[in-house]
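Q: Given only this backbone (392 positions), what sequence would you predict?
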């Protein structure tokens, strides 16, 4: 089973439906961050250059099946036209006679942008009739919306059955697979993973899957305290996921058995309140009445030392409450270490990526995953439904 890539598919003169992820933040009709539009450009440019009749489709926000003026794709069409320097035809629907007519009138290299897929609740319900209607306008199906591949929706799964061989992945999906699948499945060593974030329960699948692969596992963030507790350390007022203590012990044991170097925080920045103006240093455990809100300088040094010797570093999850100034040193320190490292560096997860962007280091990271939830599910070793249907 393989997934074909757009370059291998005859799209010349063909009505080519490309599922993109244009789910960008929009405030008062203005796009505040066009990263996702930029991320789709390679595929759209390629299709235009080869003379495909390009039909772009995306969701935006959560209109829950109701048409909403503020969630129309119009500003995105305008931005795309600027970036591509081509005219974009914007449809006011994503299915129906109007769309069919527009798609039939396309000339080679034209670009049609369909209206927000989620104006129909049938999109997220993966309704078969809606999926059939979406498929009607096209002869080729391409998915380049990596961030939606973990969803079984009409535009990512349902409609694809109408395309037997004439289906495949775009450049963005290929790049994500290159790093998240190819690089991480047969990694150069040492392979170091840094995991942080809010909850152990969110990341158990990822940790367990990574325990099959990594040489070094560095754990920080709120989730580290559940692991510390499992080791019998005092964790003060840190919220512990009591129902995850067994899994936490298991993780520690598995790491020992497999000779994986598992490093938990050995010093911390603490405060009695996450809104504190400054943190206090704490060694080893968390003092009574305190919350651990960032890793301390000694732990950061240990993490940086491991990153320096790594050939591959994967990072998911901030190691502190980086949204608050007194508790961002750990997370930003790791971002700098990754940026300076010669290793292949991969960052996944919405908040971790936001942290890297916030300090302007994204360019220095080998791969910033656009996936969010999709990247996490992928790293858990799950089959992504949107990928499975592309296999031929
Ligand atoms: P990602 O989106 O990168 O996968 P998560 O969503 O799992 O990351 O976690 C991000 C959140 O974890 C951030 O909002 C951050 O403030 C929080 N966090 C990290 N460390 C701590 C901590 N020690 N205490 C409380 N919250 C923390
Ligand atoms: Mg998050």
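A: Predicted residues:
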């Amino acid at each position: 089973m393989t997934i074909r890539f757009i370059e291998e598919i005859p799209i010349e003169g063909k009505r080519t439906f490309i599922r993109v992820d244009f789910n960008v933040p929009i405030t008062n009709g203005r796009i505040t961050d066009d990263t996702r539009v930029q991320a789709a450009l390679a595929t759209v440019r390629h299709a235009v250059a080869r003379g495909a009749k390009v039909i772009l489709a995306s969701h935006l926000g959560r209109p829950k099946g109701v048409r909403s003026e503020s969630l129309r794709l119009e500003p995105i069409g305008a931005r795309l036209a600027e970036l591509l320097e081509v005219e974009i035809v914007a449809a006011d629907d994503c299915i129906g006679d109007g769309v069919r007519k527009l798609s039939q009138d396309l000339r080679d290299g034209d670009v049609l942008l369909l209206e927000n897929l989620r104006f129909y609740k049938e999109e997220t319900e993966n309704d078969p009739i809606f999926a059939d209607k979406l498929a009607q306008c096209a002869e080729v199906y391409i998915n380049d919306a990596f961030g939606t591949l973990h969803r079984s929706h009409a535009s990512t799964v349902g409609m694809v059955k109408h395309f037997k061989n004439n289906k495949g992945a775009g450049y963005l999906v290929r790049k994500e697979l290159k790093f998240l699948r190819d690089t991480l499945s047969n990694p150069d060593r040492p392979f170091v993973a840094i995991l942080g974030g809010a909850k152990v329960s969110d990341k158990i699948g990822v940790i367990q899957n990574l325990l099959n692969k990594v040489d070094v596992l560095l754990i920080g963030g709120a989730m580290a305290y559940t692991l510390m507790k499992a080791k019998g350390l005092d964790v003060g007022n840190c919220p512990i996921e009591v129902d995850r203590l067994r899994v936490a012990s298991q993780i520690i044991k598995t790491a020992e058995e497999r000779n994986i170097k598992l490093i938990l925080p050995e010093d911390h920045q603490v405060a009695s309140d996450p809104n504190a103006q400054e943190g206090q240093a704490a060694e080893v455990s968390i003092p009574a009445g305190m919350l651990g809100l960032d890793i301390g300088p000694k732990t950061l040094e240990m993490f940086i030392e491991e990153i320096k010797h790594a050939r591959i570093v994967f990072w998911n999850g901030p190691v502190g409450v980086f949204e608050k100034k007194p508790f961002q040193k750990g997370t930003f320190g790791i971002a700098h270490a990754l940026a300076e490292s010669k290793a292949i560096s991969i960052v996944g997860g919405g908040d971790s990526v936001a942290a890297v962007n916030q300090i302007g280091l994204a360019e220095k990271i080998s791969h910033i995953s656009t996936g969010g939830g999709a990247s996490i599910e992928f790293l858990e070793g799950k089959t992504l439904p949107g990928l499975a249907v592309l296999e031929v």
